[in-house]
Amino acid sequence: MKTSNCILILCLCLVAAYALPSLIDTQVHKDIRCLCHAVSGCYFLTNCAKYSVNYEYWQKAGSPVLSVDQIPDQKAYRACILNNNCVLNTINNYVQAQGEMDCNCDGDFNAEDMLAIHFGACQNMSLIPELARRQWRYNNCAKEKMDMPTGSCIPDAV
């Protein structure tokens, strides 16, 4: 009986150790939601992933999976980019793996730097496709004082 209890506790510890942390409703979530709005014009995290998180990006982010028994393959990737928390973890892991670089030289690591790193353009932000439109989207999103909508696509004025 004691052995089975120890095995159960060990299994629960392993699951807890490898489960994705919840980034929902955190500052990281807010920053990435603005990044996603800049990318796609929408606040849908899964829409953002569809446009900017390919299989290679996901692998560089450590191949986050939804469950510990999932093999990190194409099927796990497709499942991940359809899950808000997994998208958050993927983008956050990718940015963190690149290091906290101050891409815009403002003396601070912030969501604008995350945007540049997300596009792989920290050394030269002009390489970001449609930079002006994406900066406009990001800056307007970041100025919002209230919680952003979870599922709206807002037309651009630019």
UniProtKB/TrEMBL annotation:
The keyword Signal belongs to this UniProt entry's keyword annotation: yes
Q: What Gene3D superfamilies does this protein's entry cite?
A: 1.10.530.10
Give the signal peptide as a residue range, or say none if absent. 1-19
Under Enzyme Commission nomenclature, its number is 3.2.1.17
Task: Write down the superkingdom of origin.
Answer: Eukaryota
Catalytic activity, per the record? Hydrolysis of (1->4)-beta-linkages between N-acetylmuramic acid and N-acetyl-D-glucosamine residues in a peptidoglycan and between N-acetyl-D-glucosamine residues in chitodextrins
Going by the UniProt record, its keywords in alphabetical order are:
Antimicrobial, Bacteriolytic enzyme, Glycosidase, Hydrolase, Signal
Name the record gives this protein: lysozyme
Q: Which gene encodes it?
A: LOC108569559
